[in-house]
Structure to design on (171 residues):
């Protein structure tokens, strides 16, 4: 069933579920995740104006790099392919986050490899994949999930897998 053509709405649900589950496991605040009927979606962070003035911490940069990659990885892991043109914005977000962690361009490229490996390894864990599948199925029915309902859909096991995983930017 998951081979061949994947509907845009299913792709959107899986992709946004990847981002949203990573918001939860990295304990990054957000307000809701939404997928429109034609498959376009986003996670609304609802950042307050005063937060814009704060410089993100290393932890925030690290979490945002992982979150940015998690949409693509959810498509690859659950749908077995990904929609390349749809990933441009995520790549910019990941790049911005990694720049905040890197000493220079070469270090940034090294961090990108490590970030990718970290997300790939986290996606190999059934605890994390199960939470993403559950969120994707729920999004397909409800189209919008608040941060509170997201938290009830992501298992404690999935959060623990992330907590026990080493930070990808530690030398
Ligand atoms: Zn995305």
């Amino acid at each position: 069933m998951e081979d061949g053509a994947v509907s845009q709405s299913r792709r959107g649900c899986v992709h946004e579920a990847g981002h949203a589950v990573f918001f939860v496991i990295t304990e990054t605040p957000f307000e809701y995740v939404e997928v429109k009927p034609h498959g376009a979606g986003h996670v609304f962070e609802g950042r307050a104006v005063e937060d814009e003035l704060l410089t993100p911490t290393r932890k925030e940069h690290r979490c945002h790099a992982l979150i940015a990659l998690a949409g693509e990885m959810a498509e690859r892991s659950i749908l077995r392919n990904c929609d390349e043109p749809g990933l441009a914005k995520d790549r910019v977000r990941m790049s911005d986050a990694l720049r905040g962690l890197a000493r220079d361009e070469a270090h940034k490229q090294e961090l990108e490899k490590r970030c990718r490996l970290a997300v790939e390894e986290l996606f190999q864990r059934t605890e994390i994949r199960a939470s993403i599948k559950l969120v994707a199925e729920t999004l397909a029915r409800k189209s919008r999930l608040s941060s509170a309902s997201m938290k009830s859909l992501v298992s404690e096991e999935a959060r623990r897998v992330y907590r026990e995983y080493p930070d990808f930017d530690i030398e």
